Queue: 2 jobs
Job 1
Amino acid sequence: MPILKILQYPDDRLHTVAAPVLQINNNTRTLIRDMAETMYAAPGIGLAATQVDVHQRIIVIDVSEAHDQLLVFINPEITASNGLSDYEEGCLSVPDVYGKVSRAESITVKALDADGKFFTLDASGLLAVCIQHEMDHLQGKVFVEYWSRLKQARVIAKLKKRHRHAM
Ligand code: GNR
Ligand code: NI
């Protein structure tokens, strides 16, 4: 199964707002399988379709240590959020950059699973952080965009420099 290419910040396509999934078909299922494989291979704990240049509201997450608890969220919506917490985040689209973002400490999310079945989930801790991080991707927002323009400029400079050295 193919590993998909992950868009790298700053790429304008990361700012695309994803559209709701209207029908879960074989293409959707194949995409979900490829997204999961890409996430595990990276390795990462979450991946939004936006990051692989597919602009549909689909997220995969697995925060388990054994990497055996895949969660799929199609058309996710947060229906409740409580508290605030700062968590050190990273992103597969922004390699080697880590920093704090303030988010809701706990959330309730509703979505469809890979079979199109509706579910709701109460999440806190890392899972809540990850769901909010991935849902931001679906809205075209990357975690570093919570930071000051100066800090974002430094991130871009660092990534450009890395790019030069990689050639
Ligand atoms: O792999 C990932 N780790 C992570 C760590 C802290 C907060 C959020 C994340 S998500 C990230 C994968 C990713 O970029 N998903 O969009
Ligand atoms: Ni990310």
Job 2
Amino acid sequence: MCGIVGYIGDKSPVEVIMTGLHRLEYRGYDSAGVAVVNKDGLGCIKSLGKLKILDAKLEESPLLGQTGIGHTRWATHGVPSEVNSHPHFNVAKTIAVVHNGIIENYYELREQLKATGIEFRSQTDTEVIAHLVDKYYQGDLFAAVKRALKDCEGAYAIGVICKDQPDVLVAARHGSPLIVGLGENEGYIGSDVPAIMKYTRKVMYIENGHVCEITRQGVKVEDVNGNPVQMEVKNIEWDDAAAEKEGYPHFMLKEIHQQAAVLRNTLGGRVHEGSDEVQLTDMNISKDELKACKKIFVVACGTAWHAGMVGKFLIEKFAKVSVELDLASEFRYRDPVIPENSIMIPVSQSGETADTLEAIRIAKSRGAQVAAIVNAVGSSVARESHGVVYQQAGPEIGVASTKAYTSQCMAFALFAIWLGETRGVLSKVEAKELITHLRQIPDKVDEILNNQDKIKELANRPEYRDAVGCFFLGRNVNFPSALEGALKLKEISYIHAEGYAAGEMKHGPIALVTETFPVICIAVKGETYDKMVSNIQEIAARKGLIISVATEGDKSIQAHSKDVIYIPECFEAFSPILVAVPLQLLAYYIAANLGCDVDQPRNLAKSVTVE
Ligand code: AGP
């Protein structure tokens, strides 16, 4: 989730680019850089850390030119560092590239280019693009970029400039967002509207597979095979605040809608096309350590703890390793017994949660290998762990965690398959089958996001919207889904919601059920479906207000439910990722209908850095 800006025209490219990058800082900010074409060739300044550090460097050594590109980074491949920050160059430094996305076959391309004698400067996938453009460059940058992208698989939004063609800015998109802005004798590119809205409101939304040649005279758009594409120019009506939310009323709703793309990012670069093998290169756990491991400790807080519960289920099911799950705030005070060869997996979106950090320190002090699942690149959790799986969800602004949760569940699924294969518990055929199921998840999330009418209608029904309390019930791998659904609703709508294991109702909680008490029951097809239906019938017998979350095509569930929210058929073990989405939307629309401050609920903070 990086930020890209480019400019060609008579303004100062650095001024336009830095203004735009600051408007994109919410997309990622572990490092940044700018490159411009000037009479001496390509000038470039980069910096580690926040944009203000780059500002200071540019203040000290102004970068003059006429065409430029800039980038603020949310690292995916290669740690945050100046050498890994964008722009990246070909060997002769005559071509510069900025990139948002993941080139999934970068490793193969990198090896091929290295075999021709090219020495790479960085650890990034992006640098591969610069060398490929150089390989195909014969005086026409637009043609070279089109040809280079034919070799690339994965997601990209790129900006490219060339010393020998100062009057040309080339951009392209596949999977990652990109817009082109039109001015008088000038052109802009940006990751999204806020980047260029100060200068122009006339934009083209670039589609997947399109490549653009931007000059002072205008924009030419073709597909990678050189077929011309007619683009519509739209006029942006948003105000600044709306622009950062890309038109959504709240960051939370925007982030809910990012989940299909985020899940493709989480998968991207870890399950290579064709190989169908999981690669978690930054975990820093050797095969011997993985094979010797007898116990895994999963430690987290809040929503991350719910993801950890899903992770426990997946690791024990597919890797047959015992998992102990703890709330970080409890783990640190219970004097845990940590056997030899243990692994701890802390889970954290912000990577700054105090209790989770303390749990890491305790585990390390008792000899555990710590491999974190974390979203914020370069965060304390990432730095204090031995290894890391970055969620690649991009910055999550809404206090209520949504895309971070589903990407954590996806990361656990990848880890469980990787661990199962490494330990010889999963055959290659079984692993391939699981990966096939995982690959289908993002499209199924999109299906849910494209069919929200029922959820919006339920969220405005007084019996649900004005409820004083409610239950979320689930079983098995969807017990954490019930806990997460309840947390989502309570933390943004302030309705008292509790998540329970459905089998637990008879042991007390069912005393609360009345005809004005909503019970959201997760009853997707799976091993415990029949048991779940029995629990629903027990609730119905007490006239509870039942909303069931069920699998498309399941008509029988309607007999026991007042309302049903359907989700696409899904491999049960991975269904929490899908189940989360309608429950996030239900919570969001109820809270919005109640006029709550959805992005910044009362009493809450995005990162709990205190105990
Ligand atoms: C989730 O909606 C909450 N905002 C909260 O429970 C959060 O998940 C918890 O504080 C953990 O945060 P972390 O993932 O940044 O460590």
